[in-house]
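User: Show me a protein chain along with its predicted structure.
Assistant: Here is one chain, sequence first, then structure tokens.
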Amino acid sequence: MARRVFFSFHYDEDIWRANQVRNCWLTQPDHKSAGFFDASLWEASKRSGEDAIKRMIREGLEGTSVTAILVGANTAGRTYIDYEIEQSNNVRGNGILAIYINGLKDKSGYTSARGRNPLDTWTFNDSGKKFSEVYPTYDWVRDEGYKNCGTWFHRAAQQAGK
């Protein structure tokens, strides 16, 4: 079953890498074979202001069942990444997973350093467990994301009961 996925990532640093992940379904003979449809925000205007950006994030999350945090060198701790995680978990009840994308090349052909997992900084209030102990984390290159991401997204949705 195809899943609608919201992709959360550091736009300025990782758009090139994120687009490789977000667009992998385009090379599939059938969009459903990739296991998801891209429901993320393609661009957010910095001139819109904080309220407008948060509204765009909430609208981008509508109709999604999974949130994939694409982890680059400086993703963790970013204000809008945290907002997307909070909205995905507390408001939408989405399945959540993190995917390291630092091994993908940018437009200049360079990879980047592996950053901290944003799910390490979030905890469940009732148990105190870190999100990273409950939600899976993958590496796009090492774990063959192109081939396996549909399964990852499906599992995340199932874990959330969606």
